[in-house]
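Technical note accompanying the year-one report. For the benefit of new consortium partners, we illustrate the data format agreed upon in the data management plan: each record pairs a sequence with a structure-token string. No post-processing was applied to the example shown here.
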Amino acid sequence: MPTYFVTGATGFIGRNLVERLLDRDPEAHVYVLVRDGSEERVGVLSERWGAGGRVEAVTGDLLEPRLGVSGDWIAAHRGEIDHFFHLAAIYDMTASDRRNEELNVGGTRHMLELVAALEPGTLHHVSSVAVAGSYRGRFTEEMFAEGQELPTPYHRTKYESERLVRERSSVPWRVYRPAIVVGDSRTGEMDKIDGPYYFFGLIRRLGNVLPSWLPLVGPEVGEVNMVPVDYVADAMAEIAHKPGLDGRAFHLADPEMIGVTEALNEFARAAGAPQVAVRVDRRLSGALPVAGTLGSLTRLPGARAVREAVLEDVGIPDQVIDNAGFTCSFDTAESEHALAGTGIAVPPLAEYAPVLWDYWERKMDPDRFKSRSLEAAINGRTVVITGASSGIGRSTALKVAASGGIPIMVARNVEKLEEVKEEIEMRGGTAAVYSADLSDLDSIDGLVERILADHASVDMIVNNAGRSIRRSVELSLDRFHDFERTMQLNYFGAIKLVMGFIPHMRERRFGHIVNVSSIGVQAAPPRFSAYVASKAALDAWSRVVSSELIGYNITFTTVHMPLVRTPMIAPTTIYRSFPTISPDEAADMICDGLRKRPKHINTTLGTVAEVLYALAPKALDQVLATGYRLFPDSAAAKGEVAAVETDSPTIEQRAMANLTRGVHW
């Protein structure tokens, strides 16, 4: 009866390995190390494995001497363990140096103490191809201490832990070095966002806004090596039982490296997203005259902030970008020889990339779970939403109601508000409707009184109603009322509404306000002086007042909204050439403000525009001036379309007249 001891058995690789060990022999018995209080998880996994009592939990801790296993247990099982598998470690490129040291190096040291006490037949240590560090060339399985640079705490501690095994193991050992481990090639199952999965959110975004046939141009940043977890578990279980292989290392890697861009293209193809068709080799890009200039730009003040903002926006950790590709390839001769005739081999990525993508999209995509976390933030709370009859406001109201919130919807058109309310109630939600003209300050006073009379509390406000005017200053010299009426709704109306509820929120010591601002405040596009100024005023007011009210737990979020596809932008034909987001996507940004309550929510483009203005304001003025010349004032702005600001039977004119529909720049 083969007997095993496994650390990290409840981890991703570990639980797959234990399943293989149990399947190899119906008499196999597996001891698994678990922390105190985690025994129940082993019970759940045992049912999945069909262990039938053949799996036994052993209480211990990676951070304790001899892994915290009791002396009595060691004495009772000394010499009985055939194979000791050490998988417990931290597999996280973003973890701190201290955390890597504690778990990877310290944990291995404590494991070797336990091995010396238990005296198993063979120690199987799971290392990583990360031990190759920044080695250049082909790294063979016989290689280890080659003077290679170890660029991160993860690289260094995986190297150090393998060195400890090689130098201090009291029993025969075998080392396994997996490449980047991804989900199961048959089911797609994966347990965390790691490796290529960090890029899946970006791929999904590209697929949402660009057609799949659109060819992209991108750099080839290096080569990568990925293997599915089922291959790793199958190979490890097989090699562990082959005689005569002690004292060797085995690369559990794909014999062929794959370009990072090529790998991402496989996932993009599975996602129906556009792919990089033209790849610029980094050696070529480095030789181009512009390379030196770009290199200088990356060292300018603020360049790091732009990079961090871009990566944060798409959910990619900085460390992942720095180590996206390997500097070497990996020889797999030893592994291939040991597995010859077994049928165990790494499948081509193209065969299982769709399976990985499908699982991620159904089970792991963070955006799929936003509504759940939104429910925790707003369930049972009342949320005043202005401009709620259509567009962004309508979408926000529907999402709030679907998450258990009570949208108090405000707009001038009560008939459309009633339609939205009916839709919410048909879905099992609750909503309230109030008609008001938010450009009339007296109307706002009455609105606040009515809402507070009807509702025990007002918890949150979404200032979404707004007026946008695209007209150059030159054409506005005799239209000062453009600035007055824009400021009246976008600034005075918005702050009047908030100020009306502040005493109520202050008394309850809770309130959150989401102001729908504009990317225009950051980018300052020509012809939007009236609109951008009104939104900038709202931004500044919120920044000042938030410091005064934070003690009452009243907070503000400013959403610098990009261009949104709402009826309000229909009359401006040039917008058809600009990238836009849908009202639903805009509502997601607002809901993020309600859920997380950050100070601001920005897009990458807006952040870049702010940094560029800080670094080179005159140069940015010239760039915007070019746009000013290329995209002239619209016919409506020139007064060539009659009655564009009054009620009219045409869609375009109705869109211009309905000034509470969404916000755009």
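Partners are asked to follow this layout when depositing records. Residues 475 and 639 are 9 Å apart (CA to CA).
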